[in-house]
Each structure stands twice: as C-alpha cells, then as structure tokens.
Amino acid sequence: MRISLFITCYNDTFFPQTGKAVVSVLEELGHSVEFRPAQTCCGQMHYNTGYQQEALPMMRHFLEVFRDAEVICIPSSSCVAMIRDHYPKMAAASGDAAQKLAVKDTLPRIFEFTELLVDHLGVTDVGAFFPHSVALHPSCHSLRSLKLGDRPARLLNSVRGLTLVELEQSEECCGFGGTFAIKNADVSTAMLSDKVRCLLNSGAEICAAVDNSCLMHIGGALSRQRTGMRVLHLAEILASRNKQGAME
Amino acid sequence: MSSYVGDAAKAPKFQTAAKALVQNTQLRHNVKRATGVIRNKRAKVVDEMPDWEQLRDSGHEIKQHVMRHLDFYLEQFETNCKAAGGTVHWARDADEANSIIVGLVKAQQAKEVIKVKTMTSDEVRLNGALENAGITPYETDLADLIVQLGEDKPSHIVVPALHRNRMEIRQIFLDKMNLSELGDQPEDLAAAARNYLREKFLRVPVAISGANFAVADTGSVCVVESEGNGRMCVSLPRVLISLVGIEKIIPSFQDLEVFLQTLPRSATGERMNPYNSIWTGVTPDDGPQEFHVVLLDNGRTKVLADREARETLDCIRCGACLNACPVYRQTGGHAYGSMYGGPIGAILTPQLQSMEHSQTLPYASSLCGACYEVCPVKINIPEILVHLRGKVVERGDAPFEEKMAMKAAAWTLESPEHLEMARKLGRIAQRPFVDKGVISHLPFGLDAWTRTRDLPAMPAESFREWWLKREKETGV
Predict the structure, then answer these.
(1) Cα of B374 to nearest chain A Cα, Å
(2) A160: closest CA of chain B, how far (Å)
(3) What is the model's pTM?
C-alpha cells in the first residue's frame, strides 16, 4: 500500500524522530511511504484559539495537497480530530460546494497512526523489541474524539520486552490544551502536577502517547523536575528493534 | 434593558482569579475531594443504566425541540398555569424581574422572604434588590445558607458550598447563628441548620423558589432537592413566587420521565431525588394560596438566536460537567466570576451578557471533552467554547500579542517555504536559551510555558529536511 504521511507541523519541526519512526514501522511492514513536501498544518491551533478565518486557508491547502492520496497517515490524534470534527463544519460554513465535497472525499482516507495499523492494516504485532516499563497516557482527543479505545495498548502489549504499567486517573487531561497552556499557565500547571504525580506513582520509566503535543507538555515537567522519567511517542517504541536480531 | 449575570461584568479575568485560587491549598483539597466523591457516585449509578445513552439522546431531542418552539410552549405554559390559578409575569431582564418580585413581596407587606433553589435569583441579584427594599431574604437550601451566612459566593451549580469543608461550616454556624457550642459531625450541623430554619419556615409568609422544570401542557412547576427544605418553602408559606428562566420549559408532563432519571443520577449520584415537588397553580386550602411565576429572559433569547450555541440553553443544571472538568477541579467555581461556574458557566455566562463581558471564560478549558462525555442532555460544550472563542476574536477583543502571534503563525504555516524560513530563524533565535537540548527559560510571553516546564530545543534537522535528504541519497 502507498501511504501518504501527514507529519503535522510540530512533529516536523520539533519531533522529526517520530516521523522517522512512523516511516520505519510502515516500511518494515512492507508498505511504501510518501511525503508530500507541500504540506504544512491542519489549522488546529488557529481554529481552537478562535482564529477560524485563519484556519480556512490551511484546510484548503491540506485538502489540495492530499487530494489524490490513497491513505493518509497522521501520527497525532488531535490533528485527526481537527480534520474529522471541524473540517466538515468549516467547509459547510465557507459555502464552497467543492470544499464540502473535498472534505467528504478525504475523511475516509484519513487514519491516525494506530488506527491505520490496527484497523486498516490489521496489525497489532509489528515485531518491535523494547525492554522497558511504559505508562500509556491516553490523550484526550485519542480517547474522546477518535475513541481509539485499546488500540494503542494492544500495540504496546505486543512489543517484546515491554511492560505496560497501569496509570491511575489516566483519562484526566494533562493540561496542555494548545494555547491553554500559555493563556492559563497556572491552571495548566496544576493539572500537569496531578498527571506527573500519577505517572511517578506508576513506577514506569517511560510515558507514551499517540500525541507529541501532550508529551511535550508532560515531558516538560518530567524534565524540569528531574524525575528521571521520559516521554516517547508510541511510534518510536514500535520502531525499536532488537539490534542483535534475536527476539526474547 | 439591562441583562447582567450577578457581578460577572466586574469579575477579574479567569486566569487572574485562578492564579490565586490554585494556591489556596485548603480550597483545592476540598474541591477535589468533593467532586471526586460525586463523580464516583455518578459513575456507579450511570453505569447501571442499560439505556443511559438513549436517555441522553431523548433529553437532547426534547430540549432541542423546545428551543425550536419556545414561543409556543411558553404561551401554552402561561395559559395552563393561569387556568390552574397561578399568575404569570414576564421579565425581559434582571431589573424587570427584581421589580416584579419586590412589588409582589411588598404587596403582602412582608419584611422577610424564604428562598430555595434559585440560582436565577443570584443571576438577577435579587437578594440585593430585596434588601434595598427593606426585605430580608433567608436562603433555606443548606448549602445556600452556608454561603449566605459566610458572606461567600456559590462555587458549584448543585453544591454551592462545595468549596467548604465540615470544619469551616461549623465555624460559620458558630459565628453567625450565635451558638455557644456546636459539634463537628454532619448530624450536629444539620441539627443547627434545622433549628435556625424551622422557625423561619413557620413564620415567613412569602417564599421564592426557582424551578428545575416548567411543564407546558399542565402549567406545573417542578423543583427537585435532597433536603426537604424546598418542600417546606413551596408548601408552607401563604405566597409562593417562582423565578423561572424561559429555557426551563418542557413540553409535557411525560417528559419528566426522562429528566427525573438523568438529573439526579448526573447531579448527586442518586437514583432519584429524595424530594420531587411538582405543583400546579393553587389548590384551595392546601399549600400557598397565591402563586406567581416570573418568566425570565435576561439574554436567553439572544443565546437562542445563535444556532451554533443554542444548545447552551438545554442545560438542566446537574453540575456533572463541573465535577468532570479538570480545570474546575483545580480552581473551584469562584474563578469563573459567576454563579454559573465550570464548563457550562464558561459558555453560558458570556453569552447571557452578549459576549461583552467574561470573555476569558471560553478560554478556561483545555478542550479535553470530559464535560461533553458526561452531559445528560449532550451539550457539545467544547464545540461551543471554540465557537465563542471565534466570537471574541471576531469582535477584536483578543489580546494584542495573541493576535500578532497568530498572524505570524498563519503566515508561517501558509507554505512549506515560509515554514522552512521560520524554522531557520527559530534555530538561530533559540541558541542563547538552549542548554543540552533543552530550553528552560524564554523571554516575553513565552515564559508562561518555561516558568514551570522545559521545552525541547528545535532539532538541527526537521523531518522534511531528513526526508528530502534521504530521497536524494536513495533516489526513491
């Protein structure tokens, strides 16, 4: 299958290793990955902050870039939620019939990374090896908008060497919320403190998620507080291999 | 016309109020504990319902239907209430509601009124209006009484004194009820309140209530509660006045079937409210012999006019969204500057004021979606929050730095060339702040992030650069 990667603007800029991991996992599974260099951003930050007019050209651009892509893989649940939940409304409000059609045509071809693996490709074991204990933070969009359910956990549970530890109050928001983290820094930090407390109680070495945005937030506190715990996008765990070639 | 929502127009910005509140350790402890208890109770009694999702859908549909035909149902309610011996008054705004109610109380030559379950009266600042007219209002709902005696403000839609713990309540009672001693057990506190209130129930001739529902096809009003104090208020005094927001209308008595299941389970985690009072007009020689309903608009028809946000009026004030909200749980309700706190307050308060005040409230959310998940009438609060943010921006009321930053970001994200250029500049600009791949302080507004959190430095190579290089090398 030819899979087109929408890397997302912040993964492209801040977390290229996540993109490389997605490419590695998909290629390892025998698929070919393409990257359309014209892509930029889905418009989520502008849309959610109230700059809906500014988000409109980004939607148009996205639809144009991926017009004829067979399958679009997005390693970020909040960007997928932006496209699925808001593009139809934005297109309808723009009064542009062609845009409405383009959205309708594009939506079924959009997959968040774990949706692509589990639902579309039917894979939960990607042959990864990762001998660490991991706590999974089910990000809000993955949980309540995409309703990913146990897809991320099933993928992690199939990783050799990995121990998935339980995280208390896992469904609580980490307090990121895009510009919320800046506009309401005090409340955001209070929420983050609760999340960090639960993560540390879990005893895990690593906090994983399907969104680098939440992980940047959680990781920012883990690093500042010198906790010795780090964050990792789920794709990077799935991309890790036993270098010696021997499993178990 | 003056539509106001309590003192919300004068309230500080959400983030300013929140900053002080998140440092109040006692309050945070109280709020987290109390919301945690209610959340767990709610989850238990919701999980046992096989048709919960259908009930939510039904509630949503009934409310949506009412909002589309509100004019019809309001008049139907008026006709039926009058036919049963009630009097119906229409109040365009807060001031009108106050002058109607003060006039009604004065007509009885009453100097005191007892009140129950009427958040709407806080909305219109009724207590102030009564006091200005020389009338003393007594709150009789236990939590409202604690708030009134403590000269405090309600912090939760259902549990107004949620931010207070037992010890604090004991102290308030000791100070304000002129008691020489008082135990600290729930029974002691309830007994003290009972002594204080009973005498008023029996003596005061006029009561003012709110309404959970106003039933159009029978002209009935419904109040649900846990203590029985509401039952006393709506049955003992000679005159009863109910202040009812126009959105409280439901078409038929049968529709209560849905809401009397979803409301108690969502609000307090009870299968049924201990007291469900439903009355229709006046019954000779039984209960109040004079009954007035004041139907209040106060900005509601303006909310109704906005299709995208109309759902806000569907709210049945269960407070489940507050208990589920990770923002509310850190700050409590006072941060919202309104008797309507939490996620529903964040969308209701600014809209009732035509978006002219409380503009920071739509931003008081991480858009995590927990509120929508628990809402018994399926109000899509996150969507409405975003819609209202759009209105704030459209009005030109967003902060200047934010507008500039968003403009710059929009230009950056317009094309890959711009993005690449911005990245190159960013890599140079970040140099003085990067230490071992991490940024721990940033200047200007960005320190809001770095005061409590590190930021990863922008790596030397973006994904795009890596990909293009790989493509060149492998010739793919």
Answers:
(1) 11
(2) 28
(3) 0.96
> Residue ranges of the domains in chain A?
2-120, 133-238
pLDDT computed for residue B476 by the predictor:
58
What is the distance, to the nearest Å, from the Cα of residue B134 to the centroid of all Cα atoms in its chain?
A: 30
Query: Measured between beta carbons, which residues in chain A are less than 8 angstroms from residue B366?
Result: 140, 173, 175-178, 180-181, 188, 191
Q: How close A4 comes to chain B (CA, Å)?
A: 13
Q: What is the pLDDT of residue A145?
A: 97
pLDDT for the residue B196: 95
Residues of B in contact with A49 (CB under 8 A): 389, 393, 402, 406
Number of Cβ within 10 Å of residue A169's Cβ equals 12
Q: Which parts of chain B sit beneath pLDDT 70?
A: 1-2, 476
Using an 8 Å CB-CB cutoff, list chain B residues near A216: 455-456
Pick the CATH number of A133-238 from 3.80.10, 3.30.700, 3.40.50, 1.10.60: 3.40.50
- What structural domains does chain B harbor? 50-301 (3.40.50.10420), 401-474 (no CATH)
CATH architecture of A2-120: 3-Layer(aba) Sandwich (3.40)
CB contact (8 A) between residue B416 and residue A188? no
A 102-161 → B contacts, CB under 8 A? 140-141, 143-145
Interfacial B residues in 235-294 facing A (CB < 8 Å): none
ipTM of model: 0.96
Give pLDDT, residue B2: 66
Q: What is the per-residue pLDDT for A104?
A: 97
CB–CB contact A173 B22 (8 Å): no
Q: What is the pLDDT of residue A242?
A: 75
How confident is chain A (248 residues) per 10-residue block, as mean pLDDT?
97 98 97 97 97 96 97 98 97 94 98 98 97 98 98 98 97 97 97 98 98 98 97 98 58
Which of left, alpha, beta for A39 (phi over 0: left; psi -120 to 50: alpha)?
A: beta
